[in-house]
Amino acid sequence: MPKSVTPEYWDDACKHLARRDRVMRKLIPQFGEARLQSRGDAFTTLARSIVGQQISVKAAQAVWDRFADLMSGPTNRIPPAQVLEVPPETLRTAGLSARKVEYLRDLASHFASGAVHVRQWSSMEDEAIIEELVAIRGIGRWTAEMFLIFHLMRPNVMPLDDIGLLKGISVNYFSGEPVSRAEAREVGEAWAPFRSVATWYIWRSLDPLPVEY
């Protein structure tokens, strides 16, 4: 995959959202040419999400760099088979907990054995891909949805377990009042079939720096 890829549907999505939703009409122009971008490959993206669980972004980057140093080749494309070749105790020296080492090895074995159908994902439904991913230890629905948005760039994902999305909907639609998942889902009905794009702009309204995974 090239260094970064932007969805072809983005401009159409922005026009659609601006027509359908008054908040989006105001938000979208504030961020100019900024776009969702996808980097790296599937295994590496998911491995990074496991490494980063429950630690700060800065700490996660430091651990990732040490983990990548244990592999040979580019840090944006780590072969799953190589992770399985490194002894667990060596992986621990990167600053990984025993549990995260188990998760990374389980992820690597799913990819190396073909238990996940990477080549078929482009023709599979979102929920079918989520089902495959959550079968891997250490990957829950939220991580799978982030993967759909940031790696596969699926246009219509709404991660209702995402704290930032719920907070952004609260601020932009409910004057800061807490919102339930049901209320958030209702707001998202106007965003279909581009819920991922709307979610991205809601995140930007809280933090102007684009998120990348």
Whole-number radius of gyration? Answer: 18 Å
CATH architecture of the largest domain: Orthogonal Bundle
The 3D shape can be described as elongated
> What portion of residues is helical?
55-70%
Gap between N and C termini, in Å?
14 Å
**Overall pLDDT:** 92
Count of folded domains = 2
How much beta, percentage-wise? under 5%
Domain HhH-GPD: 51-207
EC number: 3.2.2.21
Enzyme class: hydrolase
GO molecular function: alkylated DNA binding; DNA-3-methyladenine glycosylase activity; DNA-7-methylguanine glycosylase activity
Explained architecture:
There is one protein chain. The protein has helices spanning 10-20, 22-27, 42-51, 57-69, 80-85, 88-92, 98-113, 126-134, 141-150, 163-173, 181-189, 195-206. It starts with 9 loop residues before the first helix and ends in a 7-residue tail after the last helix. The chain has two domains: 10-38 and 156-206, Endonuclease Iii, domain 2 (Orthogonal Bundle); 42-150, Orthogonal Bundle (Endonuclease III, domain 1), CATH 1.10.340.30. It has twelve helices and no strands. The protein is elongated and about 55 Å long. This is DNA-3-methyladenine glycosylase II.
